[in-house]
Amino acid sequence: MAKVTIYSTPTCVYCKMAKEFFKKNSVQYAEHNVAEDDAAREEMVQKSHQLGVPVIDIDGEIHVGFNRAELERALGLK
Amino acid sequence: MYDLVIVGGGPAGVAAGVYAARKKIKTLLIAKEFGGQSLVSADIQNWIGVKSLSGLELAQRLEEHLRAQEGIEILDGDSAENVQKLDSTGFRVTAKSGKVLETKTVLICSGSHHKTLGVPGENKLNGKGVVYCSTCDAPLFGGKTVAVVGAGNAGLEAVRDLFSYASKIYLLVRSDKAKGDPVTLEEVKKNPKLEIKYQAEVREILGENMVTGVKYLDKADNQIKELKLDGVFVEIGSAPNSDLVKDLVQLDQGGQIMVDSKTQISSLAGIWAAGDVTDVLYKQNNISAGDAVKAVLNIYDYL
Q: Considering the domain boundaries, does residue B284 fall inside one?
C-alpha cells in the first residue's frame, strides 16, 4: 500500500474532502496539522515549494490541493 | 443525444438537476465538484430551511439530493470547457477530459471564480504567500504580517479569519470607503492588530521564493509606497465563468451572461443560464437555486 501523508489545517475544506476521500477508499494516511506543527510546515514547504494546503505526499509524489481524479490515478484506484 | 446538459454543481446546477429528473428530461449534469463557491464557507446561516451548516455540509447535501434522483446522469470530477452550436439543432459540449456530449439544450450554472489582481508577482507567488482562500490558509500565518486586499464582505471576513493567527494585518482599500457590511467593519476595526489603508492600489507583489511585501500607489499623495509582508490575501470579488459560451451568447461588460429574468434564456435559443454566471443583480445561493428551477421549467416547455 502507498505511504500517504497529508499536510492540513483544521479549517481547510479541501483537506476535509481529501480525508473523506481516503476514508471512503480505505486509504491509510498520516496527518500533520501545519497550523500548529512548525516542523511539519517547514517540511511541507520544502516538499511542495509553496504554502497552501492541502499538500498530499503519495510515496514521494507531491500533490497540492484536492483533485480526486489525480489522487485516484496516483493511488491506482481507477 | 441528451435533451439537456447542465453545467455546474452549485445550488443552481443541483436545483436544475433535481427538477429536470422529476420532469423526466433526458439530462446529464457535468461538474468539477459540488457546492459552488460556498464550499469553503465555515458557516452558512441563510440557506432556507437550515439554521446553520458548513459549506462542506451544504455540498454533501446537494450531492446527496441529486444522486437520489432517478434517470439523471452525473459526470463529476470533470468540467465543461466549450459549447458549440451544431449545424443541425442542438449543441456540442466538450469536457476537459475530452468527452463530447451532444444535447438539444444547455443550462449554464458554472458560477464565478475569484478575481485576481493582475499585477506583477501575483502569479509567480500564488501559494507562496499569495492566498485566495483565507479560511484554508489563514492558520499558516501565525505570528506573521499580512495584507488583505479588498474590503467587501469577503475581505472583512478574511481579516476576521486572520485575527486568530497573524500579528499584524493591513487592509488595503482601493477607494476611500470599505464596501463590506458596516456591522462587520465596526467589529474588525476594534482589533488593534488591524491597520486600514484607504486609497491604496496594489501595483506589485514583491518576493523571489516567498512574498516579502507589496508596492502600492497611495492615491492620497500619489506616491508609490512599500509594505513588508509575509502574505497577501486577495479578496477583490469574483468574475463569471462564462468563457465556454463567450462566442455564442451575449455577455455584459463584466462577462456575465445576459438572461431574460422571467425564463433565464440567453440571447441564443437553446442556451439558458442561472446563478452567479448571469447578470442577476444579487448573487445568493437561494436565488441561484430558484433561477435554475425557472430555467428548467422553461426548458421543459421548449422541449
A: yes
- The whole-model pTM stands at 0.82
DSSP state letter for B56: H
| Cβ–Cβ below 8 Å for B54 and A35 | no
Please report the residues numbered 44 through 103 in chain B whose beta carbons come closer than 8 angstroms to any beta carbon of chain A: 54-56, 77-78
**CA B203 vs CA B214, B219, B239: distances in Å:** 7, 12, 20
User: CA-CA distance, B4 to B25, in Å (whole number)?
Assistant: 7
Task: Say if B120 falls within a structural domain.
Answer: no
Cross-chain Cβ contact B42/A16 below 8 Å: no
Cβ(B66)–Cβ(B72) under 8 Å? yes
- Please, are residues A51 and B129 in contact by the beta-carbon 8 Å criterion? yes
Q: What is the span of the domain harbouring residue B15?
A: 2-114+238-302
- The set of cell numbers assigned to B125 is 507567488
Number of domains in chain B: 2
Residue B104, pLDDT score: 97
pLDDT at B23: 97
Alpha carbons B174 and A9: distance in angstroms, whole number: 31
A54 by Cβ neighbours in 10 Å (0-12 / 13-18 / 19+) ranks as buried
**In angstroms, what CA-CA distances link A7 with A13, A40, A43, B192?**
13, 8, 9, 31
Give the tens place of pLDDT for each residue, A22-78. 999 999 999 999 999 999 999 999 999 888 899 999 999 999 999 888 899 999 987
B119 part of a folded domain: no
Contact A13 B135 (CB under 8 A): yes
Low-confidence ranges of chain B (pLDDT < 70): none
A41 within some domain: yes
